[in-house]
Amino acid sequence: MLLFKNINYLLRQRGALPLSAEVFLSTDPDSLWEIVSELNQPFELLNTLDYEVRDRLLSETDIKLAVLDVDGVFTDGGMYYTSSGEEIKKFNVKDGMAITRAVKSGLEVGIISAASRSEAVELRAEILGIKRVYVGKKPKIEVLESWLYETGLGFENVSYIGDDVNDTELLKKCGLTAAPADAAAEAKRAANVVLRSAGGRGCIREFFDNYLFPGSSDDMEK
After folding, report:
1. What is the pTM assigned to this prediction?
2. Residue 177 contacts by C-beta under 8 Å, 6 or more apart in sequence?
3. Which domains can be identified in the chain, with CATH numbers?
4. What is the pLDDT of residues 168-191, one digit of tens each?
5. Which of 5, 11, 52, 109 is a good FRET partner for 153, with 20 to 30 A between their CA atoms?
């Protein structure tokens, strides 16, 4: 049970004795809530996020560049067109807030997308302060390799979120990787983390808040 595992992990981190399974199962809800409150962690995360895995991943990586796919990550993967053929994309404001905060903190963020048109992607990137943007058919790993050559970074310094088969190479190669909840099975198997949120529904915010900047507040001004 994840809640039990997380409580004991955090207790050990604080130098306290862990609970036995018997004690945990016999503890009444009020007493359990007191324990959770003392740990000062959101109950939702204690019940859904593996803290030990998260901390291990963070300790093993030094992320300098966060790279994001677009369709199925920034968006829900839907394709929207006006009657005149103009492409429209729906973005999530919570994802945007996470990216804006990350950029302000000094983390470089990039976009690599296999979309056929770049206008909406480039506009969103400009609004969020993202400088590195590639939209096209070149293999994603070639694009990232060129960025690494320019910056002097290695794959181990890159985090990546992708949702489909054309993302698996980067999901396997980058230092810290994630797939949205509704990603293709191949992407989920290749990623370090499978997120609770789906593409276009806050998966970027979840990843940034829980893995790149753990403990960041959710009550910032929109």
Report:
1. 0.84
2. 159, 160, 161, 162, 170, 171, 190, 191, 192, 193
3. 2-48 (no CATH), 60-212 (3.40.50.1000)
4. 999 999 999 999 999 999 999 999
5. 52
